Amino acid sequence: MLSGMPLLRSRLALAIACVLVMSTAGAYQGDSRGDANAYAERITDSSEAQVLVDDLPLSGGGFQRVLYAAPTHAMRGVIVMFPGGTDELRIEKNGAIRHGENFLVRTRALWLARGYGVVLVDAIDRQSMRSERSTSAYGEVTQEILAFARERAQVPVWVMGTSQGSIAAVNAAAHAGRGDIAGLILTESVSVLGGSHETVFDAHPEEVRVPTLVVANDNDQCRVAPPAMADAIARSLNQISASVLRVHGGEQQSSNACGSLSPHGYLGIEDSVIDAVVDWMEKTQA
Questions:
Q1: What is the dihedral of CA 124, 111, 101, 15, to 10 degrees?
Q2: In angstroms, rounded to a whole number, what is the distance separating the alpha carbons of residues 42 and 213?
Q3: pLDDT at residue number 2
Q4: CB-CB contact of 271 with 230 (8 Å)
Q5: How far is CA 102 from the centre of its chain?
Q6: Residues near 33 by Cβ (< 8 Å), separated by ≥ 6?
Q7: Distance (Å, rounded) from C-alpha 48 to C-alpha 71?
């Protein structure tokens, strides 16, 4: 899909859609799954957040949709978040998110409460991003997303990915210029080749030159994101000294070990994981 794709037009070009709303879209609006659905609704309550939905136009046609949410109190930073799976969040122009189970998506209110704005990245033209996240073409797209984040506020910009989204996050950090981002956070990263035919090692981790945290849950049973690979991921970032954070626990509400409602997605331990990541970010910035 992205092979040979031209660069995005300048951000001075007119966006296809730009909607500023008070977010009523915190609740998960995916498929009905009983207790899991109720859980997602509870944890994503961000009714006090200010939300901006923007479509970054592609010069060859189509768009890259992003959602920016800002805390109502003082902001300490902005985190650009690359979700896992196919990356098809289905962000609507009014801020609603149809597929909201992903760890980074459903916890956005928790990051806001800690003073961090978030930029959620949807799939380009609502097509699957499998096999595309490590490409140089998508690396160029990520730079427009980072530029969008930097325009929002004069605060440090961080890049974060989970599962397959970690591939995109590494690619973004590898392409970032000096001073563009404060650091990189990788959670339950895909490091073993699977159906997407790419891993974090394909996204040029050797080009990353910012502080990096690799988070691994010892209870994660996802075949393509084994926690035992965390040290190998850290070593692949050979231009910097990456830190490894090991966590434990999580509930299994999905039959898929790589699903979001499982230890792979930190289900039930979101607060403790986020606190540990924020603690690392604060120490890194100090």
A1: -20
A2: 28
A3: 54
A4: no
A5: 9
A6: 253, 261
A7: 8
Look at residues 213, 94, 200, 88 and name the one whose alpha carbon lies nearest to residue 160: 213
In degrees rounded to 5, what are phi and psi of residue 34? 60, -125
The Cβ of residue 61 has, within 10 Å, a number of other Cβ atoms equal to 9
For 258-281, letters b (16+ CB in 10 Å) and e give bbbbbbbbbbbbbeebbebbbebb
Label residue 132 by pLDDT band (50, 70, 90): confident
Assign residue 136 a region (left: φ > 0; alpha: ψ between -120 and 50; beta: otherwise).
Answer: alpha
pLDDT digits (tens, 9 = 90+) for 91-106: 999 999 999 999 999 9
pTM: 0.85
Between helix 136-152 and helix 165-175 the angle, nearest 10°, is 80
β strands within 27-94, DSSP E: 50-57, 63-70, 77-82
Instruction: Report the SS3 class of residue 234.
Output: helix
Rounded Cα–Cα distance for residues 110 and 126 (Å): 26
Mean pLDDT of the chain: 85
